[in-house]
Protein backbone atom coordinates (compact mmCIF):
# COMPACT_ATOMS: atom_id res chain seq x y z
CA UNK A 1 0.00 0.00 0.00
CA UNK A 2 2.71 2.43 1.07
CA UNK A 3 4.78 1.27 -1.85
CA UNK A 4 1.91 2.01 -4.27
CA UNK A 5 1.42 5.49 -2.80
CA UNK A 6 5.17 6.05 -3.03
CA UNK A 7 5.19 5.02 -6.68
CA UNK A 8 2.13 7.11 -7.47
CA UNK A 9 3.54 10.30 -5.87
CA UNK A 10 6.90 9.68 -7.48
CA UNK A 11 5.27 9.40 -10.89
CA UNK A 12 3.05 12.45 -10.34
CA UNK A 13 6.22 14.39 -9.49
CA UNK A 14 7.36 13.74 -13.04
CA UNK A 15 4.03 14.09 -14.86
CA UNK A 16 2.19 17.04 -13.33
CA UNK A 17 5.07 19.58 -13.26
CA UNK A 18 5.87 18.93 -16.91
CA UNK A 19 2.22 19.22 -17.94
CA UNK A 20 1.79 22.46 -15.94
CA UNK A 21 4.94 24.02 -17.39
CA UNK A 22 4.04 22.95 -20.92
CA UNK A 23 0.57 24.48 -20.48
CA UNK A 24 2.08 27.76 -19.20
CA UNK A 25 4.43 27.90 -22.20
CA UNK A 26 1.49 27.22 -24.55
CA UNK A 27 -0.72 29.92 -22.99
CA UNK A 28 2.17 32.38 -22.87
CA UNK A 29 2.93 31.71 -26.53
CA UNK A 30 -0.72 32.22 -27.48
CA UNK A 31 -0.96 35.50 -25.51
CA UNK A 32 2.37 36.84 -26.78
CA UNK A 33 2.09 35.74 -30.39
CA UNK A 34 3.79 38.96 -31.55
CA UNK A 35 7.01 38.13 -29.72
CA UNK A 36 8.22 36.25 -32.86
CA UNK A 37 9.92 33.38 -31.07
CA UNK A 38 11.77 35.44 -28.47
CA UNK A 39 12.58 33.15 -25.57
CA UNK A 40 13.13 34.98 -22.32
CA UNK A 41 14.35 34.44 -18.75
CA UNK A 42 10.93 33.31 -17.64
CA UNK A 43 10.99 30.30 -19.96
CA UNK A 44 14.57 29.27 -19.23
CA UNK A 45 14.89 30.23 -15.59
CA UNK A 46 11.57 30.62 -13.83
CA UNK A 47 9.64 27.75 -15.42
CA UNK A 48 12.33 25.14 -14.69
CA UNK A 49 12.46 26.39 -11.08
CA UNK A 50 8.66 26.14 -10.91
CA UNK A 51 8.88 22.64 -12.38
CA UNK A 52 11.30 21.67 -9.59
CA UNK A 53 9.07 23.21 -6.89
CA UNK A 54 5.94 21.40 -8.12
CA UNK A 55 7.79 18.08 -8.27
CA UNK A 56 9.03 18.64 -4.69
CA UNK A 57 5.42 19.01 -3.59
CA UNK A 58 4.60 15.52 -4.86
CA UNK A 59 7.78 14.09 -3.36
CA UNK A 60 7.46 15.91 -0.02
CA UNK A 61 6.45 12.83 2.01
CA UNK A 62 8.76 10.35 0.32
CA UNK A 63 11.79 11.20 2.52
CA UNK A 64 14.03 11.29 -0.53
CA UNK A 65 17.80 11.47 -0.14
CA UNK A 66 19.61 14.38 -1.79
CA UNK A 67 21.10 12.02 -4.39
CA UNK A 68 17.62 10.75 -5.30
CA UNK A 69 16.21 14.28 -5.62
CA UNK A 70 19.11 15.14 -7.92
CA UNK A 71 18.56 12.00 -10.00
CA UNK A 72 14.82 12.58 -10.27
CA UNK A 73 15.39 16.24 -11.16
CA UNK A 74 17.70 15.19 -13.97
CA UNK A 75 15.01 12.81 -15.27
CA UNK A 76 12.49 15.66 -15.04
CA UNK A 77 14.87 17.90 -16.99
CA UNK A 78 15.22 15.29 -19.73
CA UNK A 79 11.42 14.96 -19.93
CA UNK A 80 11.09 18.77 -20.21
CA UNK A 81 13.75 18.83 -22.95
CA UNK A 82 12.01 15.99 -24.81
CA UNK A 83 8.66 17.81 -24.58
CA UNK A 84 10.32 20.99 -25.90
CA UNK A 85 11.60 18.97 -28.84
CA UNK A 86 8.20 17.44 -29.59
CA UNK A 87 5.78 20.30 -28.82
CA UNK A 88 7.86 23.47 -29.10
CA UNK A 89 9.78 22.14 -32.12
CA UNK A 90 13.12 23.20 -30.70
CA UNK A 91 16.20 21.91 -32.51
CA UNK A 92 18.51 19.28 -31.03
CA UNK A 93 21.54 21.57 -30.90
CA UNK A 94 19.53 24.35 -29.30
CA UNK A 95 18.40 21.86 -26.66
CA UNK A 96 21.97 20.68 -26.06
CA UNK A 97 22.95 24.30 -25.47
CA UNK A 98 20.04 24.97 -23.12
CA UNK A 99 20.27 21.69 -21.17
CA UNK A 100 22.85 22.78 -18.52
CA UNK A 101 20.57 25.71 -17.60
CA UNK A 102 17.53 23.45 -17.36
CA UNK A 103 19.37 20.91 -15.16
CA UNK A 104 20.59 23.52 -12.68
CA UNK A 105 17.30 25.43 -12.49
CA UNK A 106 15.14 22.32 -12.07
CA UNK A 107 17.47 21.15 -9.27
CA UNK A 108 17.29 24.60 -7.64
CA UNK A 109 13.49 24.45 -7.77
CA UNK A 110 13.41 20.94 -6.30
CA UNK A 111 15.50 22.01 -3.29
CA UNK A 112 13.57 25.27 -2.83
CA UNK A 113 10.44 23.11 -2.84
CA UNK A 114 11.95 20.61 -0.42
CA UNK A 115 12.48 23.40 2.12
CA UNK A 116 9.08 24.98 1.45
CA UNK A 117 7.19 21.76 2.03
CA UNK A 118 9.32 20.41 4.88
CA UNK A 119 6.93 19.30 7.58
CA UNK A 120 8.87 20.99 10.37
CA UNK A 121 8.78 24.20 8.40
CA UNK A 122 5.09 24.81 7.83
CA UNK A 123 5.43 28.44 6.91
CA UNK A 124 5.04 28.47 3.15
CA UNK A 125 7.68 30.64 1.68
CA UNK A 126 5.31 32.98 -0.08
CA UNK A 127 8.12 35.37 -0.93
CA UNK A 128 9.77 32.87 -3.29
CA UNK A 129 6.53 32.07 -5.12
CA UNK A 130 5.69 35.79 -5.34
CA UNK A 131 9.16 36.58 -6.62
CA UNK A 132 8.85 33.91 -9.33
CA UNK A 133 5.37 35.07 -10.30
CA UNK A 134 6.32 38.75 -10.51
CA UNK A 135 9.49 37.95 -12.44
CA UNK A 136 7.58 35.69 -14.86
CA UNK A 137 4.85 38.21 -15.62
CA UNK A 138 7.12 41.25 -15.86
CA UNK A 139 9.66 39.38 -17.96
CA UNK A 140 7.01 37.99 -20.32
CA UNK A 141 5.55 41.41 -21.07
CA UNK A 142 8.74 43.45 -21.14
CA UNK A 143 10.70 44.33 -24.26
CA UNK A 144 13.75 42.19 -25.01
CA UNK A 145 16.39 43.57 -27.28
CA UNK A 146 20.04 42.69 -27.42
CA UNK A 147 22.51 43.32 -30.20
CA UNK A 148 26.20 42.49 -30.32
CA UNK A 149 29.15 42.54 -32.69
CA UNK A 150 31.89 39.93 -32.96
CA UNK A 151 35.21 40.75 -34.60
CA UNK A 152 38.03 38.42 -35.61
CA UNK A 153 41.19 38.98 -37.55
CA UNK A 154 43.86 36.92 -39.26
CA UNK A 155 47.02 37.78 -41.16
CA UNK A 156 47.25 36.52 -44.75
CA UNK A 157 50.50 36.27 -46.72
CA UNK A 158 49.09 37.97 -49.82
CA UNK A 159 48.25 41.44 -51.06
CA UNK A 160 44.77 42.97 -50.56
CA UNK A 161 44.22 42.83 -54.33
CA UNK A 162 44.78 39.06 -54.37
CA UNK A 163 42.57 38.49 -51.34
CA UNK A 164 39.71 40.78 -52.42
CA UNK A 165 38.09 38.49 -55.02
CA UNK A 166 38.08 35.62 -52.49
CA UNK A 167 36.41 37.86 -49.92
CA UNK A 168 33.56 38.83 -52.22
CA UNK A 169 32.81 35.23 -53.26
CA UNK A 170 34.50 31.87 -52.81
CA UNK A 171 34.28 28.26 -53.89
CA UNK A 172 33.10 25.44 -51.68
CA UNK A 173 35.02 24.96 -48.43
CA UNK A 174 36.46 21.44 -48.44
CA UNK A 175 38.32 21.47 -45.11
CA UNK A 176 36.83 19.28 -42.38
CA UNK A 177 35.09 21.07 -39.52
CA UNK A 178 37.02 21.47 -36.28
CA UNK A 179 34.37 23.18 -34.16
CA UNK A 180 32.45 20.62 -32.10
CA UNK A 181 29.00 22.11 -32.79
CA UNK A 182 29.62 21.93 -36.55
CA UNK A 183 30.79 18.34 -36.11
CA UNK A 184 27.57 17.29 -34.39
CA UNK A 185 25.35 18.78 -37.07
CA UNK A 186 25.12 22.53 -36.73
CA UNK A 187 25.17 24.03 -40.25
CA UNK A 188 28.53 25.57 -41.16
CA UNK A 189 29.33 28.00 -44.01
CA UNK A 190 30.17 26.19 -47.28
CA UNK A 191 30.34 28.70 -50.14
CA UNK A 192 29.48 32.24 -51.15
CA UNK A 193 28.19 33.44 -54.50
CA UNK A 194 27.69 36.96 -55.79
CA UNK A 195 25.52 38.36 -58.60
CA UNK A 196 28.06 41.07 -59.47
CA UNK A 197 31.24 42.67 -58.16
CA UNK A 198 29.69 46.03 -57.30
CA UNK A 199 27.72 48.01 -54.72
CA UNK A 200 24.14 46.80 -54.35
CA UNK A 201 24.87 43.37 -55.76
CA UNK A 202 23.25 40.32 -54.22
CA UNK A 203 25.34 37.83 -52.32
CA UNK A 204 24.42 34.39 -51.01
CA UNK A 205 26.10 32.60 -48.15
CA UNK A 206 25.35 28.88 -48.46
CA UNK A 207 25.49 26.62 -45.42
CA UNK A 208 26.28 22.91 -45.22
CA UNK A 209 22.64 21.84 -44.88
CA UNK A 210 21.62 23.86 -47.94
CA UNK A 211 20.34 26.88 -46.03
CA UNK A 212 21.02 30.18 -47.72
CA UNK A 213 21.55 33.63 -46.22
CA UNK A 214 20.57 36.30 -48.76
CA UNK A 215 22.77 39.36 -48.52
CA UNK A 216 23.06 42.75 -50.19
CA UNK A 217 26.39 44.54 -50.58
CA UNK A 218 26.13 47.98 -48.95
CA UNK A 219 29.81 49.00 -49.05
CA UNK A 220 32.06 47.98 -51.92
CA UNK A 221 35.39 49.72 -51.36
CA UNK A 222 37.68 47.56 -53.51
CA UNK A 223 40.61 45.94 -51.66
CA UNK A 224 39.49 47.62 -48.41
CA UNK A 225 35.92 47.15 -47.21
CA UNK A 226 33.12 44.76 -48.11
CA UNK A 227 30.01 45.27 -46.00
CA UNK A 228 26.77 43.43 -46.59
CA UNK A 229 23.36 43.40 -44.93
CA UNK A 230 21.56 40.12 -44.41
CA UNK A 231 18.19 40.56 -46.08
CA UNK A 232 16.79 37.06 -45.54
CA UNK A 233 17.89 34.22 -43.34
CA UNK A 234 16.48 30.71 -42.92
CA UNK A 235 14.16 30.23 -39.95
CA UNK A 236 15.63 26.98 -38.77
CA UNK A 237 14.37 25.43 -35.51
CA UNK A 238 17.99 25.13 -34.42
CA UNK A 239 19.88 28.01 -32.92
CA UNK A 240 19.48 30.03 -36.10
CA UNK A 241 15.83 30.54 -35.25
CA UNK A 242 16.94 32.34 -32.11
CA UNK A 243 19.52 34.69 -33.55
CA UNK A 244 19.25 37.23 -36.36
CA UNK A 245 22.49 37.91 -38.18
CA UNK A 246 22.05 41.50 -39.33
CA UNK A 247 25.26 42.57 -41.04
CA UNK A 248 28.65 41.21 -42.04
CA UNK A 249 31.85 42.96 -42.97
CA UNK A 250 35.37 42.17 -44.21
CA UNK A 251 38.05 44.81 -43.77
CA UNK A 252 41.43 44.45 -45.46
CA UNK A 253 44.49 46.32 -44.20
CA UNK A 254 47.74 46.26 -46.14
CA UNK A 255 50.55 45.72 -43.63
CA UNK A 256 53.18 46.98 -46.10
CA UNK A 257 55.28 43.81 -45.85
CA UNK A 258 53.46 41.59 -48.30
CA UNK A 259 50.87 40.56 -45.72
CA UNK A 260 47.32 41.75 -45.18
CA UNK A 261 45.26 41.79 -42.00
CA UNK A 262 41.77 40.51 -42.72
CA UNK A 263 39.13 41.48 -40.16
CA UNK A 264 35.72 39.81 -40.12
CA UNK A 265 32.89 41.57 -38.28
CA UNK A 266 29.36 40.32 -37.68
CA UNK A 267 26.45 42.11 -36.07
CA UNK A 268 23.63 40.04 -34.65
CA UNK A 269 20.47 40.34 -32.62
CA UNK A 270 19.97 37.69 -29.98
CA UNK A 271 16.45 36.43 -29.38
CA UNK A 272 17.11 34.15 -26.43
CA UNK A 273 17.65 35.27 -22.87
CA UNK A 274 19.41 35.37 -20.39
CA UNK A 275 22.13 37.12 -22.32
CA UNK A 276 24.91 36.23 -19.90
CA UNK A 277 24.44 32.59 -20.91
CA UNK A 278 23.40 32.62 -24.56
CA UNK A 279 25.74 35.36 -25.73
CA UNK A 280 28.69 33.15 -24.79
CA UNK A 281 27.33 30.58 -27.25
CA UNK A 282 26.39 33.18 -29.86
CA UNK A 283 29.90 34.67 -29.77
CA UNK A 284 31.49 31.25 -29.98
CA UNK A 285 29.36 30.18 -32.96
CA UNK A 286 29.82 33.49 -34.80
CA UNK A 287 33.57 33.35 -34.17
CA UNK A 288 33.79 29.84 -35.60
CA UNK A 289 31.73 30.84 -38.66
CA UNK A 290 34.19 33.72 -39.17
CA UNK A 291 37.25 31.57 -38.74
CA UNK A 292 36.00 28.84 -41.06
CA UNK A 293 35.40 31.39 -43.82
CA UNK A 294 38.55 33.44 -43.13
CA UNK A 295 40.82 30.39 -42.99
CA UNK A 296 39.39 29.35 -46.35
CA UNK A 297 40.01 32.83 -47.80
CA UNK A 298 43.56 32.64 -46.46
CA UNK A 299 44.14 29.25 -48.09
CA UNK A 300 42.75 30.41 -51.45
CA UNK A 301 44.72 33.67 -51.34
CA UNK A 302 48.07 32.12 -50.40
CA UNK A 303 47.99 29.57 -53.27
CA UNK B 1 38.83 26.35 -5.85
CA UNK B 2 35.93 27.50 -8.07
CA UNK B 3 33.82 28.05 -4.94
CA UNK B 4 36.53 30.17 -3.36
CA UNK B 5 36.98 32.22 -6.55
CA UNK B 6 33.25 32.84 -6.95
CA UNK B 7 32.71 33.72 -3.28
CA UNK B 8 35.71 36.05 -3.04
CA UNK B 9 35.80 37.64 -6.50
CA UNK B 10 32.22 37.39 -7.70
CA UNK B 11 30.56 37.91 -4.32
CA UNK B 12 28.47 40.77 -5.73
CA UNK B 13 26.33 38.33 -7.75
CA UNK B 14 24.77 36.98 -4.57
CA UNK B 15 22.73 40.19 -4.43
CA UNK B 16 20.90 39.04 -7.58
CA UNK B 17 17.84 37.04 -6.42
CA UNK B 18 18.26 33.25 -6.59
CA UNK B 19 21.83 33.43 -7.92
CA UNK B 20 23.41 31.97 -4.78
CA UNK B 21 20.84 29.15 -4.71
CA UNK B 22 21.49 28.38 -8.37
CA UNK B 23 25.24 28.35 -7.77
CA UNK B 24 24.70 25.98 -4.85
CA UNK B 25 22.63 23.69 -7.12
CA UNK B 26 25.58 23.65 -9.51
CA UNK B 27 27.78 22.51 -6.62
CA UNK B 28 25.28 19.75 -5.77
CA UNK B 29 25.19 18.60 -9.39
CA UNK B 30 28.99 18.57 -9.56
CA UNK B 31 29.17 16.54 -6.32
CA UNK B 32 26.50 14.17 -7.67
CA UNK B 33 28.78 13.48 -10.65
CA UNK B 34 32.17 13.56 -8.94
CA UNK B 35 31.74 12.35 -5.32
CA UNK B 36 28.14 11.46 -4.68
CA UNK B 37 28.79 9.74 -1.32
CA UNK B 38 29.40 13.21 0.15
CA UNK B 39 25.73 14.00 -0.46
CA UNK B 40 24.83 11.02 1.78
CA UNK B 41 27.08 12.35 4.55
CA UNK B 42 25.36 15.74 4.33
CA UNK B 43 21.98 13.97 4.55
CA UNK B 44 23.19 12.11 7.67
CA UNK B 45 24.28 15.41 9.23
CA UNK B 46 20.95 17.04 8.41
CA UNK B 47 19.01 14.11 9.83
CA UNK B 48 21.00 14.22 13.07
CA UNK B 49 20.59 17.98 13.58
CA UNK B 50 16.87 17.83 12.79
CA UNK B 51 16.46 15.40 15.71
CA UNK B 52 17.45 18.11 18.17
CA UNK B 53 14.58 19.83 19.89
CA UNK B 54 13.26 22.91 18.06
CA UNK B 55 15.57 22.71 15.05
CA UNK B 56 14.31 23.54 11.57
CA UNK B 57 16.08 23.93 8.26
CA UNK B 58 15.81 26.50 5.51
CA UNK B 59 17.76 27.58 2.47
CA UNK B 60 20.71 29.78 3.35
CA UNK B 61 20.60 33.14 1.58
CA UNK B 62 24.02 32.52 0.06
CA UNK B 63 23.23 28.91 -0.89
CA UNK B 64 23.20 25.74 1.19
CA UNK B 65 21.20 24.34 4.08
CA UNK B 66 20.70 26.53 7.12
CA UNK B 67 19.98 25.04 10.55
CA UNK B 68 17.81 27.18 12.81
CA UNK B 69 16.61 27.24 16.39
CA UNK B 70 13.62 29.55 16.42
CA UNK B 71 14.80 32.70 14.72
CA UNK B 72 18.46 32.00 15.44
CA UNK B 73 20.80 30.46 12.92
CA UNK B 74 22.86 27.60 14.31
CA UNK B 75 25.00 27.32 11.19
CA UNK B 76 24.81 26.55 7.51
CA UNK B 77 26.26 23.91 5.24
CA UNK B 78 27.25 24.83 1.67
CA UNK B 79 26.85 22.04 -0.87
CA UNK B 80 30.59 21.60 -1.26
CA UNK B 81 30.88 20.58 2.41
CA UNK B 82 31.88 23.87 4.04
CA UNK B 83 30.08 24.25 7.34
CA UNK B 84 29.93 27.82 8.67
CA UNK B 85 29.01 28.62 12.29
CA UNK B 86 28.98 31.93 14.13
CA UNK B 87 30.62 31.98 17.58
CA UNK B 88 31.89 34.76 19.77
CA UNK B 89 35.46 35.77 18.93
CA UNK B 90 36.90 34.12 22.06
CA UNK B 91 35.36 30.74 21.21
CA UNK B 92 36.44 31.12 17.60
CA UNK B 93 40.05 31.74 18.69
CA UNK B 94 39.96 28.64 20.93
CA UNK B 95 38.51 26.44 18.18
CA UNK B 96 41.12 27.59 15.68
CA UNK B 97 43.96 27.21 18.23
CA UNK B 98 42.93 23.63 18.97
CA UNK B 99 42.57 22.83 15.27
CA UNK B 100 38.85 22.11 15.56
CA UNK B 101 37.90 24.74 12.98
CA UNK B 102 39.35 27.22 10.55
CA UNK B 103 38.77 30.93 10.06
CA UNK B 104 35.71 31.64 7.91
CA UNK B 105 36.43 31.25 4.20
CA UNK B 106 35.41 34.87 3.56
CA UNK B 107 34.78 36.81 6.80
CA UNK B 108 38.13 36.43 8.49
CA UNK B 109 37.68 39.11 11.12
CA UNK B 110 34.26 38.03 12.34
CA UNK B 111 33.26 35.33 14.82
CA UNK B 112 32.39 32.99 11.94
CA UNK B 113 34.33 29.74 11.63
CA UNK B 114 34.45 27.27 8.76
CA UNK B 115 34.71 23.51 9.06
CA UNK B 116 35.49 21.45 5.97
CA UNK B 117 33.71 18.10 5.68
CA UNK B 118 36.07 16.14 3.48
CA UNK B 119 35.62 12.59 4.76
CA UNK B 120 32.93 10.68 6.60
CA UNK B 121 34.99 10.75 9.81
CA UNK B 122 34.60 14.55 9.85
CA UNK B 123 30.88 14.25 10.56
CA UNK B 124 31.11 13.78 14.39
CA UNK B 125 33.32 16.89 14.66
CA UNK B 126 30.92 18.88 12.47
CA UNK B 127 27.98 17.76 14.60
CA UNK B 128 29.86 18.59 17.77
CA UNK B 129 30.54 22.16 16.56
CA UNK B 130 26.88 22.64 15.64
CA UNK B 131 25.90 21.24 19.05
CA UNK B 132 28.15 23.78 20.78
CA UNK B 133 26.38 26.60 18.98
CA UNK B 134 22.96 25.03 19.53
CA UNK B 135 23.54 24.68 23.28
CA UNK B 136 24.66 28.31 23.51
CA UNK B 137 21.58 29.54 21.68
CA UNK B 138 19.24 27.36 23.75
CA UNK B 139 20.75 28.45 27.07
CA UNK B 140 20.73 32.11 26.02
CA UNK B 141 17.09 31.80 24.95
CA UNK B 142 16.18 30.19 28.27
CA UNK B 143 17.99 32.91 30.26
CA UNK B 144 16.16 35.58 28.26
CA UNK B 145 12.83 33.87 28.87
CA UNK B 146 13.49 33.58 32.62
CA UNK B 147 14.52 37.23 32.81
CA UNK B 148 11.34 38.22 30.99
CA UNK B 149 9.24 36.18 33.37
CA UNK B 150 10.91 37.79 36.40
CA UNK B 151 10.38 41.28 35.04
CA UNK B 152 6.89 40.68 33.67
CA UNK B 153 5.35 37.82 35.75
CA UNK B 154 2.04 38.35 33.96
CA UNK B 155 3.56 36.41 31.03
CA UNK B 156 3.80 33.35 33.28
CA UNK B 157 0.02 33.22 33.60
CA UNK B 158 -0.60 33.84 29.94
CA UNK B 159 2.00 31.27 28.88
Automatic annotation (TrEMBL), chain A:
* Superkingdom of source: Bacteria
Q: Entry's InterPro entries? A: START-like_dom_sf (IPR023393)
Q: Please give the start and end residues of each transmembrane region.
A: 12-31, 37-57, 69-87, 93-112
Keyword terms: Membrane, Transmembrane, Transmembrane helix
Q: Keyword check for Plastid, yes or no.
A: no
Q: What is this protein called?
A: SRPBCC family protein
Q: Which organism is it from?
A: Pedobacter changchengzhani
